[in-house]
Amino acid sequence: MGRLIHTIQRPQGYGLAAVYRQDEYQLLAIADRCTIQHYIFDSTNPEYLCSEHAIKLRSPIVALTSAKYNGRDRLFAIADNKIYECSMNAQVWGHIEETTQRGVDSTVGHHRLHLLVYGENASVIRVTSDGRVFKYPYARKSQTVFLGSLGCIQVKLTATLEDNQTVAVLYSGYDLTSSLLYFSFEKENPRIIHQFASFVEAPSLIIPMNYGGVMVLSNSKAYLFPGLNQTCDLPDTYVDSSSTRASVSKGVVTIDIGLPPYVYSLFTAYTKIDDTRFLVTTDSGQTALIFVDLLFTPGRFGQSSMLLKSFTVLDVGKSTVANSLVHIQDNIFYAASRFSQSVLFSIQPEDPTLRILSFMPSSPPVLDLAYSYNTDSIRYAPDIFVCQGSYHNGELRKITYNTWRTTVLSSIQINEPFAEIIRLLPTNYLGYHSLDSRVYVGIMNASEISRIYEIEDDGLLKKPGAIKLSNFSIDGTGISDAKMDEKGEFEWDRVWTNDDFCAFKVRNDDIKFARVMRFRDTIHIKGGHLVLTTQGGELSVKLNHDEALVCSLQFVYFRDEPYIIVAYSDGHVLFYSGSHHQLKHRWSLTCSIRKAGLVGALLCLNNKNSIVLVMVDTHGTIYQHLIRRGNIVDSCVWISKNGVPTGMNSDGLLVVMYDDHKVIGLVPKSDYFLELADFFYSPKVIKSVTVLLLYNYMFGVLLRDGTFFTVRLKDKTDVDDAHFADQLWTKALSIKNTPYLICIKNDIASSNGFKRSSTINLLDGRSMKILDTFADGEHLYTDICLLPEDKSLEIGAQYFVAIQDDGPWSQKFPIFKVEDFKVKAVANVMAEGVPLRNVSFTSIVFSDKLYAIGNELVSIELEKVENGYRWVHEGHDSAKTKRMLQYGMQVCPTQLGGVVYLDSFHGAFLQFPNEMPRRIGSLTEMLYTAICVVPPIGDEPEYIVAGDTYGRVYFRQNTIMLHSQINVLKYIEEDGSLLIGTLDGGIYRLTSQATLETYKIRKLYGTCTKTFNLPYEQNSDVSEDRAIYPSMYIEAALKRRDIAKDFIRLAAFNSSSDKGVNKTKASHLKMPMEKFIDEF
């Protein structure tokens, strides 16, 4: 079987937004990948934005704009080289020849709408209807007419002048100089009518002005350009302010902006408030109001003049790095960002300050990825740490396989050292919950229930989970189990008494295990028999196994029939069904993987009202067996990468497993199998965990120090495990066998001439808490990597090396260590062998020696000297490398002694000692942006994985298309999978090759891949054992066909593909494959 590509983090937020009016409503349209979601602002709503209709396209949206045409506002989008009108639904208005677009603007002439589409080359497109330009075109009749090109220029931004007939284009030419030109239409063709001189410094934003010209902003200047037949000047009475100074040259007014936050910033987006006020944002997240007071004087013969009376820049605070900035209404604005969180905010007119109303999630570009299996708790899939951001804003996120938000509600202290917690109510015998919101737990100590506590679980209460002592009591000793009588549980207004509690009391030592069931029925093990006691009498069946090895006795009701399991610590599980007439042994199984024993086993119900048997063995492996009509029909396996659960508990629906510090769970969701999820981490030692109620996903935790507290879970829809900052997180490194995470964060010091500097941060990867920050305020660190433990060099397990990019060669590679929860610099680390020129490095990796790449590729070895360390420079054939190296981005050593390196200009190369570099791939067809070397796995030799600017990942003979530039490739050595990070913030995982022993699923996958339009590509000549399949889309395809049997198997395959092996028997499809294909 081939590999699967899994989506770990879906790209969110595309930095595109527009506003337009529809009837009496002002609509905010936000593009999120392939969807345009419409909102209406409502100040009375706590979330402010009320979701309206959504429009879904088949491909990612690359441009969005609104325009008034034929008396009404319209919304236009570009996706998949098509123009869509998206006001109510998506209607194709035409096609575009260019393969890449950067933006779209519009201009409306006499009964005509022109869309200005710009990217690598600029073109102008007119949308008409069969040549009849005076009639509004219906979508089915509309056509696109290509009018012409503006030449070989790269357009940055466009703006339509006030007359709606002239367009200003801000562009850069072949010589990389930036300029401004005006063009208009002459007999439907674009005609350049004015070309201005090149800018001294690169501009970043263009704004149309009400007088007919445009304002262009750069990092320290603002330029006011005149419109057609117009002049710009300064009046004699103009007075410079403390932050702005103005001058005139060649009819263009230049204003020097001296406001410190904006001197070194690039402007990214704007929106017009009125004729004199404009709101702008910068690449550092600053937001400012620009006041432009102009005196307009019309002249004769269409001539006019414009005088600048005043120009003011007012800082209002930080919002986000906006790609689109729109004015919704009054003082309400929305900033859409590709590089940080998108923000809805207001500006108070009486005191111009920014007030953030709400955030909208987005996924900035992925800068680096790290992973960790190495915590002091159970682990089935790695935690993934991602650095994301751009410009000066960034975030550091932690992504687990399924993270839930936890809230500790209430706690009490239990002083009995040997106390246990048992749930008395709800019973959940039938897989649903009581209408009552109360939960009762008993404190059992030495076979006595000393106290009963009531726990509130009403979600409407201000303090759900509150624990209070109850007046109830259960008298007697020798209690093995107790529950509330089911009759009392389902009577809404019942007044409960002590008589409603049913306890199983053991009168001698013959009974090893006992459970209270429905209607005061019980089951227990006695004298080598399983005994079911009901109101009609006692039924028993002999257990053909050693009674002393029993570790679990569990039951669940299905259609009023109890199903019972008896699990043994040597791995045997016996399955029984019972009734008032008989107790029947149905089947038995043995846990056989690596001859493991069992920690425990239990029965529960999934979301499809089917029974699932959950087992945990002594290696930490989790098994799920789907049971229908009393027989196992499918299974899936999760193999523990670290740690073994010490206990498990269930209420019949929710399953929790725990060790000394970690609680994980199995949750019934839309699948046939329960979904594995991360729940809770405790720094203190956990003694036991008890599921209280699935209604609010609440459970109780008893610590070894006697503290008992309630925890409520919520499926996380936002991001809690993240650090957001106006600095940029650039690198993340996980230290093996520890929970530590080392990260680099870059900052720009505005108080020190905007000098860049870095800090090295130590975090606890479990809680994402920053433990220590190493900062000297002087140096810029660009990369870090671990040093392998070496006793001969006195290098410990928590040593790492960094690149100090702004220091001399002798101090380029400082060494640090983690000690006493702090980052400490190792003293006396020097580098020898000075290179021939000043060097700058971006990436390092250690494999027997340290490889560093930048404007040079060097290899250096570490030696121990008296009182310190010395790096010895080898050079690594730098003379040969220089011929092919412009500026290196990444270097990866191979096991054969060579290196693979990636150059920002020339592409990827493979080089062996004393040989010339050999190019990988074709520079004309692909521009690589990330590389990774996968070591040998089994019989497979090592090979290179590469990603390019178009979003393609080259994996052996495969090509996977992810539709966004590949920024990061990270190999996971524990299981042979590959992490992929993209420019649009997507994170994917390519799993290692899976093995399904009996089920021939590969033909089914091949069918789905060919039949459905999936957003991934693969070469047709790839053998089945090397093919790559998108798991989630095939699963959706099977869901639509409602092929339950195969969907179950597919779910098992998805769950176990990179974690274990499906060992169940498989039946054939119910219909021939040819008919199956046709019906798809």
From TrEMBL:
InterPro entries: Beta-prop_RSE1/DDB1/CPSF1_1st (IPR018846), RSE1/DDB1/CFT1 (IPR050358), WD40/YVTN_repeat-like_dom_sf (IPR015943), WD40_repeat_dom_sf (IPR036322). This is RSE1/DDB1/CPSF1 first beta-propeller domain-containing protein. It holds the Pfam family Beta-prop_RSE1_1st. It comes from Candidozyma auris. Residues 151-351 form the RSE1/DDB1/CPSF1 first beta-propeller domain. It comes from the Eukaryota. Gene3D superfamilies: YVTN repeat-like/Quinoprotein amine dehydrogenase.
